[in-house]
Amino acid sequence: MNSNNIVLRVEDIHKSFGDKEVLRGISFDVVKGETKVFIGPSGTGKSTLLRCINQLTIPDRGRVWLDDEEITNSGTRINYFRQKIGMVFQNYYLFDHLTALKNVELALLKVRGMNKEEAREKALTELRQVGLEDWADHYPAELSGGQAQRVSIARALAMDPEVILFDEPTSALDPELTREVLEVMKRLAQQGMTMLVVTHEMGFACSVATEILFMENGVVAERGTPDLLTHDPQFTRMKNFIGQFNSYRGG
Ligand SMILES: Nc1ncnc2c1ncn2[C@@H]1O[C@H](COP(=O)(O)OP(=O)(O)OP(=O)(O)O)[C@@H](O)[C@H]1O
Ligand SMILES: [Mg+2]
Which ligand is nearest to the CA of 215? Predict the structure, then answer.
């Protein structure tokens, strides 16, 4: 299946909670180095989709592949896949009692079995990558939201992931802090990181995305390159949504 440099394949994912059908058949391929951006109304299943990819939520139907291996039904191999598919959430999920450095080091020590010195060096490298090497010894409470989010990105990077999933990484941040996080993400994209990003930051989406997917009612209703979406009049539903969203945000 990997003939076209496809890193991740998502095939016909369905998920219901009770009698509510949240995902109704989502499929797409992700090529190495791509950034796919997902937008869409609240409750339309964007977070559920990301969680189904690394099996934090088990889909009812459909399959997910990383490289040539199926993730769905992979049993204990799922721990390996979760290392290879990094996840960055809106609320960072850092450990408050650990410094930035220790937050990044933790999985290197516990999951990857590095010794202290290796883990420290690797964690510092990743903190440097997100512009935070001088903040290594600070605790989350001493960091801005933007810095905390960058620590969580460094933590994901430390596992040398093949793909990183970002679920609204800036929606809890002020515009100034949003910018610094988006800049880090943009640089990662330019360096060839493969990323799936749920965000409403359309400036970021249009400048970084290889494709934008508009989700509505559990399906991908419209999808295309930023250029196509801007210039082709057929994408009415997505444009409507973005228009509403911008006026709601006062943007
Ligand atoms: N664990 C769960 N149990 C029951 N219902 C759930 C669960 N997780 C999500 N849902 C429901 O599934 C629907 C989709 O939720 P999801 O969080 O994926 O949407 P979203 O597109 O990410 O929304 P938002 O833009 O607000 O983040 C919602 O109606 C939500 O209440
Ligand atoms: Mg969500």
Answer: 1
Q: Which ligand is nearest to the CA of 49?
A: 1
Contacts of 83 (CB under 8 A, 6+ apart): 107, 111, 112, 159, 160, 161
Give the model confidence (pLDDT) of 229-246 as tens digits: 877 778 888 888 887 766
> pLDDT per residue over 32-66, tens digit each?
999 999 999 999 999 999 999 999 999 999 999 99
Per the DSSP assignment, residues forming a β-bridge with 63 are 11
Question: Which residues sit with their C-beta closer than 6 Å to ligand 1?
Answer: 17, 22, 42-48
How far, in Å, from the CA of 8 to the mean position of ligand 2? 21
Which ligand 1 atom lies nearest to the CA of residue 41? 25
Nearest residue (CA) to ligand 1, atom 2: 17
Closest CA to 86 of 150, 166, 10: 166
> Which residue bears the tokens 């290879």?
84
What are the φ and ψ backbone dihedral angles of 5, each rounded to 5 degrees?
Answer: 65, 30
Domains plus CATH for the chain?
2-248 (3.40.50.300)
Q: In what order do the strands lie in the sheet with 61-66?
A: 20-31, 6-17, 61-66, 69-70
Residue labelled with tokens 């990105």: 153
